[in-house]
Design a protein that fits this description.
Strand order of the largest sheet: 4-13-12-7-8-9
Largest sheet: 6 strands, mixed
Number of helices: 5
CATH architecture: 3-Layer(aba) Sandwich
Oligomer: single chain
Number of domains: 1
Order of helices and strands: EEEHEEEEHEHEHEEEEH
Structural class: alpha+beta
Distance between the termini: 43 Å
CATH superfamily: Glutaredoxin
Helix content: 25-40%
Amino acid sequence: MLVAAAAFVLVAAGVAAAAILLVHGRSSAAPLVTIDAADPAVPAAVQSRLGLSTLGRRPAPGLTLVDQRGRTVSLASLRGKVVVLEFFDPVCTDICPIVSQEYVEANRLLGAAARRAAFVAVNVNQYHRSVAAVAGFSRKHGLDGIPSWHFLTGPTVTLQKIWKAYGVAVQPNPSGDVVHSSLVYFIDAKGRERYLAMPDRNKKGIGAWAHGIAAVVRALAPAA
C-alpha cells in the first residue's frame, strides 16, 4: 500500500546528515559513505547490492526492551555476536515483510555461522507495541524460525528515544501502518556500528539482499 511521501533528514551516528525521501520506508538516497580499505573485506558486489555505507567503529546507542517472548533484551546482552538491526512496524504490509524474508533467508544461508549473529528489529508503531503484536508479526512471517530473532518493543517514550538515537524518522498513524525510515544497521561483536544499508520494496531482490546480509555478517563475525 502506497502512502504519501514524506521528506525527512537522516542523521546516522558518525555520518554526515543526508536528506532522504521516504515512501513507506523506501529511500532514494545514495550511499552516504563508501567502504574504506581498513574495514573487513566485503565484496564490491555486496557493497553495491546493499547500497552499503560505512559508519566507522563508534559504539552503537544502547537499548533495553522486551522481545516477542516477553524477555528483556539489551544490545549489551548481545555482545559477542554480529547484530543485524532493523526497525519494523508489526502491522506493516509493505517493506517490513520483505526485509523479514531477507532475514529468514540470510539466517539459512549462514548455516552454522548463524550462531554468531543476532537478527533484531525495534518496533516503530507506538499504537501496536504489545508483546502480542510483535509476536504475531514474528509468527506470520516465519521469523520465529531464527533462533537469534528478537522483535523488540516497549513504552512509547523509550521507543522514541531509540528511534532518535538511530536516526529513524517515524510518522505516527493510529489507523494503520506507519511511514518510517527503513534502515539496516550492522553492529559488530564489540557493539560498534560498522555499516548502514537502506532496503527497498522490491520483492525480486530478496534473494540478493539475503546473500548480501550473510556476506556482511561473515565479514564481521568473530572466529568460530
